Amino acid sequence: MFAEERQQLISALVAERGRVSVTDLADRFSITTETIRRDLAALEVSGNLRRVHGGAVPSDRLSTREESIVERAVQRQDEKLRIAKAALALIPEPTTGSILLDAGSTTETLADLLAQRTLPTNSNEELVVITHAIPIAGKLSSTQGVALQILGGRVRGLTQAAVGQSTVEAAYRLRPDIAFVGTNGIHAVFGLSTPDPEEAAVKAAFVKSARRVVALADSSKLDAETLVQFATLKDVDTLITDQQPSAELAAALADAGVDVVVA
To answer: Is 223 left (phi over 0), alpha (psi -120 to 50) or beta?
Structure first.
Protein backbone atom coordinates (compact mmCIF):
# COMPACT_ATOMS: atom_id res chain seq x y z
CA MET A 1 0.00 0.00 0.00
CA PHE A 2 1.32 3.46 -0.94
CA ALA A 3 1.77 6.03 1.83
CA GLU A 4 -0.82 8.35 0.26
CA GLU A 5 -3.44 5.60 0.22
CA ARG A 6 -2.67 4.62 3.80
CA GLN A 7 -2.89 8.23 4.95
CA GLN A 8 -6.30 8.62 3.32
CA LEU A 9 -7.52 5.57 5.23
CA ILE A 10 -6.07 6.92 8.48
CA SER A 11 -7.80 10.26 7.93
CA ALA A 12 -11.10 8.46 7.34
CA LEU A 13 -10.66 6.38 10.51
CA VAL A 14 -10.01 9.50 12.59
CA ALA A 15 -13.14 11.15 11.22
CA GLU A 16 -15.21 8.03 11.89
CA ARG A 17 -13.95 7.10 15.36
CA GLY A 18 -12.99 10.48 16.80
CA ARG A 19 -9.60 9.16 17.94
CA VAL A 20 -7.05 6.59 16.78
CA SER A 21 -3.96 5.28 18.53
CA VAL A 22 -0.52 4.80 17.02
CA THR A 23 -0.31 1.17 18.15
CA ASP A 24 -3.74 0.26 16.76
CA LEU A 25 -2.87 1.81 13.40
CA ALA A 26 0.47 0.03 13.30
CA ASP A 27 -1.26 -3.30 13.92
CA ARG A 28 -3.97 -2.54 11.39
CA PHE A 29 -1.54 -1.75 8.57
CA SER A 30 1.21 -4.15 9.71
CA ILE A 31 3.86 -1.43 9.78
CA THR A 32 6.05 0.14 12.46
CA THR A 33 4.86 2.78 14.89
CA GLU A 34 7.56 5.10 13.53
CA THR A 35 5.99 4.92 10.07
CA ILE A 36 2.56 5.67 11.54
CA ARG A 37 3.95 8.68 13.39
CA ARG A 38 5.37 10.01 10.11
CA ASP A 39 1.96 9.52 8.49
CA LEU A 40 0.25 11.39 11.34
CA ALA A 41 2.79 14.20 11.11
CA ALA A 42 2.11 14.58 7.39
CA LEU A 43 -1.65 14.54 7.95
CA GLU A 44 -1.36 17.15 10.68
CA VAL A 45 0.62 19.46 8.40
CA SER A 46 -2.09 19.12 5.75
CA GLY A 47 -4.78 19.92 8.35
CA ASN A 48 -6.51 16.54 8.25
CA LEU A 49 -6.05 15.74 11.95
CA ARG A 50 -4.35 16.81 15.15
CA ARG A 51 -1.77 14.68 16.91
CA VAL A 52 -2.22 13.97 20.61
CA HIS A 53 -0.34 11.75 23.04
CA GLY A 54 -0.39 8.23 21.65
CA GLY A 55 -2.47 8.95 18.57
CA ALA A 56 -4.57 11.52 16.73
CA VAL A 57 -7.97 13.23 16.84
CA PRO A 58 -9.91 15.30 14.28
CA SER A 59 -8.44 18.71 13.63
CA ASP A 60 -11.54 20.45 15.00
CA ARG A 61 -11.23 18.75 18.41
CA LEU A 62 -9.37 21.52 20.18
CA SER A 63 -9.10 21.76 23.96
CA THR A 64 -11.20 24.93 24.16
CA ARG A 65 -13.73 24.16 21.42
CA GLU A 66 -17.24 24.02 22.80
CA GLU A 67 -20.57 23.80 20.99
CA SER A 68 -23.69 25.46 22.33
CA ILE A 69 -26.41 23.42 24.01
CA VAL A 70 -28.63 24.12 21.00
CA GLU A 71 -26.06 22.62 18.61
CA ARG A 72 -25.47 19.59 20.81
CA ALA A 73 -29.18 18.89 21.20
CA VAL A 74 -29.50 17.80 17.55
CA GLN A 75 -26.35 15.65 17.48
CA ARG A 76 -26.20 11.90 18.18
CA GLN A 77 -29.79 11.87 19.36
CA ASP A 78 -30.27 8.09 19.17
CA GLU A 79 -27.14 7.45 21.21
CA LYS A 80 -28.11 10.02 23.83
CA LEU A 81 -31.58 8.52 24.15
CA ARG A 82 -30.12 5.07 24.80
CA ILE A 83 -27.78 6.52 27.41
CA ALA A 84 -30.61 8.44 29.07
CA LYS A 85 -32.81 5.33 29.23
CA ALA A 86 -30.00 3.43 30.95
CA ALA A 87 -29.57 6.32 33.38
CA LEU A 88 -33.30 6.40 34.12
CA ALA A 89 -33.12 2.74 35.12
CA LEU A 90 -30.78 3.73 37.97
CA ILE A 91 -33.47 5.91 39.55
CA PRO A 92 -35.90 3.84 41.66
CA GLU A 93 -39.61 4.27 40.98
CA PRO A 94 -41.37 5.50 43.03
CA THR A 95 -38.78 7.22 45.19
CA THR A 96 -38.26 9.86 47.83
CA GLY A 97 -34.56 10.19 47.04
CA SER A 98 -32.61 12.98 45.38
CA ILE A 99 -30.68 13.34 42.15
CA LEU A 100 -28.62 16.09 40.61
CA LEU A 101 -28.75 16.76 36.86
CA ASP A 102 -25.76 18.53 35.35
CA ALA A 103 -26.21 20.75 32.31
CA GLY A 104 -25.90 19.04 28.94
CA SER A 105 -27.81 17.56 26.03
CA THR A 106 -27.72 13.99 27.37
CA THR A 107 -28.90 15.03 30.83
CA GLU A 108 -31.64 17.04 29.11
CA THR A 109 -32.75 13.85 27.41
CA LEU A 110 -32.85 12.18 30.83
CA ALA A 111 -34.99 15.09 32.07
CA ASP A 112 -37.39 14.48 29.16
CA LEU A 113 -37.75 10.85 30.23
CA LEU A 114 -38.33 11.87 33.84
CA ALA A 115 -41.02 14.30 32.73
CA GLN A 116 -42.79 11.47 30.88
CA ARG A 117 -42.67 9.11 33.84
CA THR A 118 -45.95 9.03 35.73
CA LEU A 119 -46.62 8.15 39.36
CA PRO A 120 -49.89 6.87 40.83
CA THR A 121 -52.28 9.73 41.49
CA ASN A 122 -52.45 8.84 45.19
CA SER A 123 -48.68 8.79 45.63
CA ASN A 124 -47.18 11.33 48.03
CA GLU A 125 -43.63 10.42 47.14
CA GLU A 126 -41.48 12.92 45.31
CA LEU A 127 -38.08 12.72 43.69
CA VAL A 128 -35.97 15.74 44.54
CA VAL A 129 -34.25 16.92 41.35
CA ILE A 130 -31.50 19.52 41.66
CA THR A 131 -30.11 21.31 38.63
CA HIS A 132 -28.35 24.48 37.56
CA ALA A 133 -29.50 24.12 33.93
CA ILE A 134 -32.31 26.40 32.77
CA PRO A 135 -33.59 24.02 30.02
CA ILE A 136 -33.76 21.09 32.45
CA ALA A 137 -35.57 23.18 35.03
CA GLY A 138 -38.11 24.18 32.40
CA LYS A 139 -38.77 20.56 31.45
CA LEU A 140 -39.34 19.44 35.06
CA SER A 141 -40.95 22.49 36.65
CA SER A 142 -44.48 21.03 36.58
CA THR A 143 -43.73 17.30 36.53
CA GLN A 144 -45.82 15.19 38.90
CA GLY A 145 -43.71 13.44 41.49
CA VAL A 146 -40.72 15.81 41.07
CA ALA A 147 -39.68 18.38 43.64
CA LEU A 148 -37.44 20.72 41.65
CA GLN A 149 -34.60 22.72 43.18
CA ILE A 150 -32.63 25.22 41.10
CA LEU A 151 -29.09 26.32 41.89
CA GLY A 152 -28.61 29.99 41.13
CA GLY A 153 -25.72 31.95 39.69
CA ARG A 154 -24.68 33.73 36.53
CA VAL A 155 -26.25 32.01 33.54
CA ARG A 156 -23.70 31.13 30.87
CA GLY A 157 -25.37 31.60 27.50
CA LEU A 158 -23.51 28.86 25.65
CA THR A 159 -24.73 26.11 28.00
CA GLN A 160 -27.73 27.92 29.54
CA ALA A 161 -26.48 26.86 32.97
CA ALA A 162 -25.70 28.77 36.17
CA VAL A 163 -22.01 29.07 37.01
CA GLY A 164 -19.88 31.03 39.45
CA GLN A 165 -18.96 30.97 43.11
CA SER A 166 -22.54 31.02 44.40
CA THR A 167 -23.39 27.96 42.27
CA VAL A 168 -20.33 26.09 43.51
CA GLU A 169 -21.01 26.95 47.17
CA ALA A 170 -24.65 25.86 46.86
CA ALA A 171 -23.59 22.53 45.35
CA TYR A 172 -21.16 21.83 48.19
CA ARG A 173 -23.98 22.29 50.73
CA LEU A 174 -25.90 19.38 49.18
CA ARG A 175 -25.50 15.61 49.32
CA PRO A 176 -27.70 14.12 46.56
CA ASP A 177 -28.02 10.36 46.19
CA ILE A 178 -26.91 10.40 42.55
CA ALA A 179 -25.28 13.07 40.38
CA PHE A 180 -25.71 12.56 36.65
CA VAL A 181 -22.77 14.47 35.20
CA GLY A 182 -21.95 15.33 31.62
CA THR A 183 -18.43 15.69 30.26
CA ASN A 184 -16.75 16.95 27.11
CA GLY A 185 -14.01 14.37 27.41
CA ILE A 186 -13.13 11.25 29.38
CA HIS A 187 -9.54 10.09 29.10
CA ALA A 188 -7.52 7.25 30.60
CA VAL A 189 -4.94 9.62 32.10
CA PHE A 190 -6.56 13.06 32.21
CA GLY A 191 -9.93 11.91 33.51
CA LEU A 192 -13.06 14.00 32.92
CA SER A 193 -12.71 17.46 31.43
CA THR A 194 -14.56 20.42 29.96
CA PRO A 195 -13.34 23.52 28.08
CA ASP A 196 -14.58 26.23 30.46
CA PRO A 197 -13.06 26.79 33.94
CA GLU A 198 -16.33 28.00 35.49
CA GLU A 199 -18.25 25.00 34.17
CA ALA A 200 -15.43 22.77 35.46
CA ALA A 201 -15.71 24.26 38.96
CA VAL A 202 -19.43 23.51 39.11
CA LYS A 203 -18.97 19.97 37.79
CA ALA A 204 -16.20 19.35 40.33
CA ALA A 205 -18.53 20.45 43.12
CA PHE A 206 -21.24 18.09 41.84
CA VAL A 207 -18.79 15.20 41.78
CA LYS A 208 -17.50 15.88 45.30
CA SER A 209 -20.97 16.40 46.77
CA ALA A 210 -22.87 13.37 45.49
CA ARG A 211 -23.03 9.97 47.15
CA ARG A 212 -22.84 8.33 43.72
CA VAL A 213 -21.49 9.83 40.49
CA VAL A 214 -22.79 8.64 37.12
CA ALA A 215 -21.07 10.09 34.05
CA LEU A 216 -23.12 10.25 30.86
CA ALA A 217 -20.90 10.42 27.77
CA ASP A 218 -21.60 9.39 24.21
CA SER A 219 -18.74 7.71 22.38
CA SER A 220 -17.53 10.95 20.77
CA LYS A 221 -16.33 11.99 24.26
CA LEU A 222 -14.31 8.83 24.87
CA ASP A 223 -10.51 9.26 24.81
CA ALA A 224 -10.95 13.03 24.46
CA GLU A 225 -9.15 15.69 26.50
CA THR A 226 -10.39 19.26 26.81
CA LEU A 227 -8.85 22.16 28.69
CA VAL A 228 -9.88 21.75 32.34
CA GLN A 229 -10.00 18.53 34.36
CA PHE A 230 -12.87 18.40 36.87
CA ALA A 231 -12.67 14.77 38.04
CA THR A 232 -10.42 11.74 37.92
CA LEU A 233 -11.70 8.34 36.87
CA LYS A 234 -11.61 7.28 40.53
CA ASP A 235 -14.19 9.97 41.32
CA VAL A 236 -16.74 8.23 39.06
CA ASP A 237 -18.85 5.25 40.08
CA THR A 238 -20.55 4.50 36.75
CA LEU A 239 -20.01 5.49 33.13
CA ILE A 240 -22.91 5.14 30.71
CA THR A 241 -21.95 5.35 27.05
CA ASP A 242 -23.05 3.95 23.70
CA GLN A 243 -19.92 2.05 22.61
CA GLN A 244 -17.29 -0.07 24.27
CA PRO A 245 -14.35 2.15 25.30
CA SER A 246 -10.96 1.65 23.69
CA ALA A 247 -8.65 -0.92 25.27
CA GLU A 248 -6.58 1.76 27.02
CA LEU A 249 -9.59 3.59 28.44
CA ALA A 250 -11.35 0.36 29.39
CA ALA A 251 -8.30 -0.77 31.36
CA ALA A 252 -8.06 2.58 33.15
CA LEU A 253 -11.77 2.51 34.01
CA ALA A 254 -11.44 -1.02 35.38
CA ASP A 255 -8.40 -0.03 37.47
CA ALA A 256 -10.39 2.92 38.87
CA GLY A 257 -13.32 0.67 39.78
CA VAL A 258 -15.75 2.34 37.37
CA ASP A 259 -18.76 0.29 36.28
CA VAL A 260 -19.22 0.73 32.51
CA VAL A 261 -22.72 0.45 31.05
CA VAL A 262 -22.95 0.29 27.24
CA ALA A 263 -26.44 1.36 26.22
So the answer is: left
